[in-house]
Amino acid sequence: MSTVISCMISAVRADCSISRVAVLAALRTETSATGIQMFDIDQPGQGIVHVIGPELGLSLPGCLIVCGDSHTCTHGGLGALAFGIGSSELTHVLATQALIQRRPKTMRVKFEGKLPLGVVAKDMILALIGHIGAAGGTGYAVEYAGSAIRDLPIEGRLTICNLSIELGAKMGMVGPDEKTYEYLRGRAYAPQGEMWEQAINAWRQLPSDPDAVFDEEVVIDGAKIIPQVTWGISPEHVSKPPSTIWGCSPAHRSPAHRWIGCSSVPAPIAASAICGQQRTSCAAARLLRVCGPGSYLVRRP
What we know:
Blueprint: H1 18-34, H2 49-56, E1 64-67, E2 81-84, H3 87-96, E3 105-112, H4 121-132, E4 140-145, H5 147-151, H6 154-162, E5 171-173, H7 178-184, H8 193-203, E6 216-221, E7 229-230, E8 238-239, E9 244-245, H9 255-259, E10 267-268, H10 282-287, H11 296-299
Parallel strand pairs: 1-2, 3-4, 3-6, 4-5
Antiparallel strand pairs: 7-8, 9-10
Helix pairs in contact: 4-6
């Protein structure tokens, strides 16, 4: 529902299209008939799946989570194995609780060292994408590790894993630790009481062994990362302020390049209009500069 119904207040959503209203009505009918809990409009729990999952304690270490959203890999920040699937696969999962998949190769990315002041999780993952390319993670399940990852709050780890899809990877994750357990403690759908202690003991068995072997290893020096900005038609088009954004020759300029105003001469970043998110529609961003809250709890006054 999060892809068709906003978390903004009801008045802002009064002009929802007929098709969106139909989707909402169908969801209410089908979830009621099958006994599936639905977090309806303006109810605590409404929101984007990979936002409300961690908020509510539905996303837990060791869980296998699939959803019809490419950024389902976000849940990996809590130690879950999570990835996006298509609508046909969703139907199959709901009917059979099973899904045929090819086993991915494994990649470990270690961010080591102390991050400079002002550098955040988004800069870390963009630096990685700029380093190995937007297809660098294709075919891999990526584990993020290292001292800089351990120093991140859970929100930062979720951000890192969220952008695994921009790296080309289907899934990304961070092994659970004490920060993970404290984040989940007391959340609505997390284990409680005796079950909590049992869960903690099980979750402590999940992190990779120190001598685990990966198909690919990448090491990034966190101390050398500076704030990153993407510009162009791919997340790998990363620039580092206060440098210039890349230019492209007329022979290689596609309609997309021309539409965003990419010239053949690099231009100063300070003089360029850049959309807030690489994966957000620039057309929409230019027409309506609104940041969606992501969940009911986030937008609540």
